[in-house]
Design brief:
- There is one protein chain.
- Strand 5 and strand 6 form a beta hairpin.
- The protein is an alpha+beta fold.
- The strands form 4 sheets. Strands 12, 13, 14, 15, 16, 17, 18, 19 and 20 form a 9-stranded mixed beta sheet that branches. Strands 5, 6, 7, 8, 9, 10 and 11 form a 7-stranded antiparallel beta sheet that branches. The chain has a two-stranded antiparallel ribbon with strand order 1-2.
- It is globular and about 85 Å long.
- The longest helix has 20 residues.
Length: 458
Amino acid sequence: MSVISRSALESSSLADLHEIASELGLDGYRRLRKADLIAAISERQGVNGDAPHDAAAGADVDVDVEGEAGADAEVEEKPARRSRRGGRGRSRTRDRDQGDIEVGEDDSDAEDAPAPAPTRTRGGRERGRDRDRESGRDRDRDGGRDRDSDRDRDSAPADDRRATGTVELLPNGSGFVRVSPPEPSDDDVYVSAAQIRRCELVSGDEVAGPVRSPRRSERYPSLIRVDTINGRAADEVAEGTKYDDLPCTWASERIALDDEDATLKAIEWLTPFGRGSRVVIVGAPRAGKTEALRRLAGVLARQEDLECSVVLAGVRPEELGDWKAGPLQPAVELGLGAAPDVHGQAIERAVETGRRVAARGGHAVVLIDTLEHLPPPLARRVLAAARNIVDGGSLTVVATANAPFGGETTVIALDAALTASGRIPALDLPASATIRAELLVGEKGAEAIAEARAAAIG
């Protein structure tokens, strides 16, 4: 990198100085005051005055020349990554089959390569910083990384190796190409979350593409790009009709529970739901909402034509163990202490995966415990993703909450007083409802539900 003069450093913002300090590998730079930070940067660069000179020996530099001959070359510097305490900064992602893996800093949302430093021109001026000052620092990080990684991926040196295998998604949105499915192996290839979003990949997709070797902060090779998905060109698959534009209709195929459990039998025949339903299990605290959802998950996990996933967002610590002992292991586990925005991100990732399954013609069910900690607009957006696609797949969302949010097609209300007294099923039938129940259980079944509700009210 070009050395920046003392006067230029003094006129820079603190955020810009932090970027420079990170590039230079200064330890503990975020704890320094601005004057001390400027002094530390100047000392590291060897600058005593205002005369700039080059002092970036050993940096990894990629040169990308744009425009005609004579145009300024853009130099992308990829500095060594460091945490606040010094040393390389890494984020660790849990792969349930492989254990801890190192995929580079913040690779859960990054593309194939770590995000490059701001682009510089020959004079040392940072064009990216000028744009940042105009547009603010809160621009979408994923969008910027996607653009940078697109360029980086096109220019990334391949090692003449291609990977072909089956995609397995991780809870954080990234994934792996299993070259010898279903068993993991050391030859598996990491796929970034950005590529998965862009290509709308789901677990089970067969993909192929070129691979690059691991970099020094990485443990696994990475997929440079996705060339084919299930034997078709990736562009053809990704450029299909958007999920929100696909025609949908009322749920008309009831999801059979076929279980002797009293609560499940009551839900199946008095508050039925089908493929594509938006279901909320509501009730006061300690009404048994989590238990009802857990029993539903156990039954749905046995149905081979449904791709089920469980998201735990804000549950009691003791309930985590109960879920793990069941047949359907949670894809995401967040306790009460997690922040609401973390809850929302985890839930939206799981729902996005379900949307991809439904768009491909599959049938997905996402069970969520709970929506209670989400802002109501976000909760409604999560529920709105559920739909029965005409001549296609479906996404069913079943969630718990203290009260309905609006837009549900099935509300399963539980009575806390009945639960406390041990009266099972604890279904609050007058407060429960299913829209267009006749499509699921027929006219006679709908009449029977109406009669049972009237008797409960009377």
